[in-house]
From TrEMBL:
Compartments reported by the entry: Cytoplasm
GO molecular-function terms, A-Z: leucyl-tRNA--protein transferase activity
GO cellular component: cytoplasm
Main location: cytoplasm
Keyword line: Acyltransferase, Cytoplasm, Transferase
Family: Belongs to the L/F-transferase family.
SUPFAM superfamilies: Acyl-CoA N-acyltransferases (Nat) (SSF55729)
Keyword Transferase: yes
Protein name listed in UniProt: Leucyl/phenylalanyl-tRNA--protein transferase
Pfam families named in the record: Leu_Phe_trans
Amino acid sequence: MPVEPPPTRWELPSTSGDDDLVAFGADLEPGTLLAAYRNGLFPMPVDQLLGRATDLAWWSPNPRGVLPMGGLKVSRSLRQSIRKFEIRVDTAFHEVIEACADPTRPGAWISDDIRRAYERLHRLGWAHSIETWTPDGRLAGGLYGVAIGGLFAGESMFHARQRWGRDASKVALVALVEMMRAEHPVGRLLDVQWGTRHLASLGVVEIPRQEYLSRLRRALELPLPPAFAGPADHRAH
């Protein structure tokens, strides 16, 4: 089971305004990160001005992108891709976050500090990777995020550049939804931060912040899905 770290020393900002960006500063200690997620916030660095260091910012999008447990859209081609991969959980967290942090990716935002912070959360049992592997043992894609009770806060996903990896991140998302549906699925919350056209094609919808916060409170009272409460090398096929 996850290990609760020391509490944050920071007072969390209010999410009563309309802006997605709600605060700057604080730190990336495990206690701060968990307090943020429990209050509908997540960190993402931004460059304030050209030539200045990257500042840590805290976000609470309005509206918020979520994937309803019964709303996942799986195309025929994606169903075919699912049969090509093996799904594993938490067997290559470092490799997944490294791939997601690749600075050559469009919109790359995962700094070294962010990567190290989530690796600490992973060691404490809060951050998880869902991985897609080829039959010959190559990591084809995956995603990572934070699981607290019935909440899974997705952070980033990737797929290998080889042709066989094209749908690998989508397959990982399908597997994640199946894991969250196992035992007590009602009330679980899959947060994807912002909705995009690509995510909408998979069933992601946008909801007002206050509705998200209300769903979040209920989700946090639920138990972890079994996939995230068991041994680190739990595997699903």
